[in-house]
Amino acid sequence: MSAQVKYLWTEGAVGERVGPDILEEGDRSRPFSDKFWSGVEAVSLERLKEIQLHRLKFLLSFTYERSQFYRELWDSKKVKPSDVKSLKDLAKFPIVTKYDFEKDQAARPPFGTAPTSPPSQHLKYWQTSGTTAKPRIWMDTRQDWENGILLYSRSLYGHGIRPGWRGFFAFGFPPFIGFWLCFAATEAMGCQVVPKGTLPTAAWLQLMRNIAGTAPSFLCSTPTFAIRQMEAAKEAGFSPADLRMDILTLAAEPGACVPATNRLLTQGWNAKIHDILGATETSGPILFSCEKQAEMTPVSDHINIDYFIVELLNPDTLEPVPEGSPGTTCVTSLGRYGMPAVRFLVGDYLRVDERPNCGCGRKLPLAVGGVAARTDDVLFVKGIKLYPSLVETSVRSLAGLGVEYRLQKKDNQVTVLVEADPGVPEKEYPELAQKLQQDIKLKAHVTLPVEVSPPATLPRLETKTPRVVKG
Ligand SMILES: [Zn+2]
């Protein structure tokens, strides 16, 4: 059976490969057609759901057999893998959060009891920031990594990137997953890679400039750092468009799907703007935008449902929301076996169209309007939900303001901190603050105090920027 699915790395390699072969995947190391990387992208929603159920049944049995953490948890809730006859039955299983894994690793250091395989079977080790004293360790087996490469290849190909292109990685290569997997996929697809690493931003831009225009190119970055690179290019006396990026692949924060941010980056870089989204615990990418969606406002993202079951829950009750309603995400990762994520609470806020009619031809459902926010970031102001991305839209649409912002939370009060553009005299700051306050009120139905500071007052980060800060 495996003769019909060709793997990239694990064919004949040391280490085990488990789980069902999905025949439509065909040769995973090269494109299926000029439109799709994987044959699975061409199948119907019904077939995608069959694949989900097939993989889910295997994952649950395998995990129950090998992972003490899950076995004890499921036994305590009196559920077992054989209870799953349809996709709906997954909801009988308990939700897990990062705190559960933190507790497990604290009690049984260093790896806890969740892994299904001994350390020798793992290929990559990550450290994610813990909310308690100790950071968490997270691992991928060789097979998990290969599945991630497949999904990234599919997503980058969906953006319009082709073998022979050049990927610029504005990424410091820290010990969390970040763009590591995207980097590996870029190499595996037959593209070139240019890593930034610890190079200062000005030197990085110079490197990009030195080789600009010698291959079709894409930039991998967080949206915030993509904006920072634009500013730094202008400070160095040239236009970011001179760097000749065709595509920006943005991750870690909502980017392409926030219209004002998208507009800013599209115009500044003269490039197509795309989003990609995953999480260390589930691997990724779970979502990606296609070439057709990149033309829309707002951009929506396809969901790789053959590898992820994304449930939408009411953030307060953690019960499923009615079909078509938005909810917070709980993800089961169907191609990650070393350290499984079964009903892992990711906490992105999404609305899903299961049967979109996307011009690209994929039947993969769409997260409509992309990711509005991480549920963790949602603020409650006078009983009203406030998403940072909504404030972002106002900040980045208003002339005279810079693009950076923070929401400073102190007691029950939230203050919006922003910067004026260079050249705006300080006497105009109060008027700018008032305009922004009115615009936020119009969009979010809440009146927030606004403080305008001079340019470059707020810190710029290469990694995900926390928008909500304690005052
Ligand atoms: Zn599409």
Structure notes:
This protein has 10 helices and 21 strands. It has 471 residues and is of the alpha/beta class. The chain has 2 domains: 1-375, 3-Layer(aba) Sandwich (Rossmann fold), CATH 3.40.50; 379-470, GMP Synthetase, Chain A, domain 3 (2-Layer Sandwich), CATH 3.30.300.30. The strands form 5 sheets. Strands 4-3-5-6-7-8-9-14-13 form a 9-stranded mixed β-sheet. Strands 10-11-12-15 form a 4-stranded antiparallel β-sheet, with no helix packed on it. Helix 1 (45-66) packs across helix 2 (68-76) and helix 8 (259-269) crosses helix 9 (388-397). The longest helix has 22 residues, at 45-66. It starts with 44 loop residues before the first helix and ends with a strand. The model has no long low-confidence stretch (mean pLDDT 92). Zinc ion is lined by residues 290, 292-293, 302, 358, 360, 362.
Q: Name the assembly state.
A: single chain
Tally the structural domains: 2
Write down the overall geometry. globular
- CATH topology group of the largest domain: Rossmann fold
Rg estimate, integer Å: 22 Å
Instruction: Supply the helix-strand structural class.
Output: alpha/beta
Name of the CATH homologous superfamily of the largest domain: ANL, N-terminal domain
Could you list the spans in which at least 5 consecutive residues all have pLDDT below 50?
A: none
The appropriate CATH architecture of the largest domain is 3-Layer(aba) Sandwich
Averaged pLDDT, please? 92
List the ligand species. Answer: zinc ion
Termini separation (Å)? 59 Å
Percentage of residues in helical conformation: 25-40%
Q: What's the β-strand tally? A: 21
Q: Name the strands of the widest sheet in spatial order.
A: 4-3-5-6-7-8-9-14-13
Q: Beta fraction of the residues? A: 15-25%
Instruction: Output the CATH class name of the largest domain.
Output: Alpha Beta
User: What's the tally of helices?
Assistant: 10
Main sheet attributes: strand count, strand direction, barrel closure: 9 strands, mixed
